[in-house]
Specification:
- The structure is a single chain.
- The chain is an alpha/beta fold.
- Helix content is 39%, strand content 16%.
- It has 11 helices and 8 strands.
- Strands 1-8-2-7-6-3-5-4 form an 8-stranded mixed sheet, with helices on both faces.
- Helix 4 crosses helix 5.
- The longest helix is centred in the middle third of the chain and has 15 residues.
- The protein binds adenosine-5'-diphosphate and magnesium ion.
Length: 246
């Protein structure tokens, strides 16, 4: 069985940090606690997401409260939704549909080590986006070209990319990250290893907005990578999910 079908009590979760928010027991709780739009909740239900997994139960409140997070949870436990749901909720509405003047460049960024992974994250993002005109860009040569249009560029909500491609776009001035409010490193053990570290740090440095929320998610995080992650975040919370032996 995939890991997420295990009931939550089977997952041993430890959370370290100051003022760690309580976990949720159901997705429904998010409406009362954080006023998460019922639109997202019905998208979850429609896609067969009934109960939060351990990393979702603990991670979603932490991110909803604006905290920085290092999350370690085994493969298949739903880490993608654990960051996408809070990020999209905190963004509120697609920039393109907003009456407010939020049309000022990409607002959230997810970095992954491979195109294949970025593609999977994009698919997960589209489930939450159903029924609204979110502009979510799976970064590639073609989508990078579309960003030459200032109108497109200014109403991007979320970019999902590998590091090298994004660094190239930053350097050529196609994209600016100064309005990014949320940045996630997925598969952080690889993102913070030597192959990607310089590029990742360049991207993080480009996210210059004050108070940008940072999160790293991984199935494992070796101590070297963990130290880099914790050092790049202010007052981070660290959550570790271990699957108990059955
Ligand atoms: P991870 O990143 O931890 O390896 P994923 O985010 O890729 O895990 O999710 C694994 C699978 O579980 C995906 O197919 C996803 O759609 C599904 N999934 C995630 N959360 C839930 C949930 N709460 N209920 C049912 N399925 C879920
Ligand atoms: Mg994953």
């Amino acid at each position: 069985l995939p890991a997420w079908t295990a009931p939550i009590p089977r997952q041993r979760v430890t959370a370290k940090g100051s003022n760690v928010p309580d976990p949720i027991e159901s997705f429904r709780e998010l409406r009362d606690r954080y006023h998460i739009s019922s639109h997202f909740l019905s998208n979850l239900a429609q896609n067969g997401y009934k109960e939060p997994t351990g990393i979702q139960a603990h991670g979603i409140p932490i991110l909803m409260e604006g905290r920085n997070l290092a999350a370690i949870s085994p493969t298949g436990t739903g880490k993608t939704l654990a960051y996408l749901l809070p990020i999209m909720s905190l963004l509120g509405a697609p920039a393109s549909s907003s009456k407010l003047d939020t049309r000022s460049g990409v607002r959230a960024l997810v970095l992954a080590p491979t195109r294949e992974l970025a593609h999977q994250i994009h698919n997960e993002c589209l489930k939450l986006a159903q029924g609204r005109k979110w502009r979510i860009i799976l970064f590639s040569k073609a989508t990078a070209n579309a960003l030459n249009d200032q109108n497109v560029r200014d109403s991007v909500d979320i970019i999902i990319s590998t590091p090298l491609r994004l660094v190239a776009a930053m350097q050529s001035g196609v994209i600016g990250l100064e309005n990014v409010r949320h940045v996630v490193l997925d598969e952080a053990d690889r993102m913070l290893d030597t192959e990607f570290l310089d590029q990742v740090q360049e991207v993080i440095a480009g996210c210059s907005r004050e108070g940008v929320q940072k999160a790293v998610f991984s199935a494992t995080l070796p101590s070297g990578a963990e130290k880099i992650a914790m050092d790049m975040m202010k007052h981070p919370i660290r959550v570790v999910v271990g699957l108990k032996d059955t």
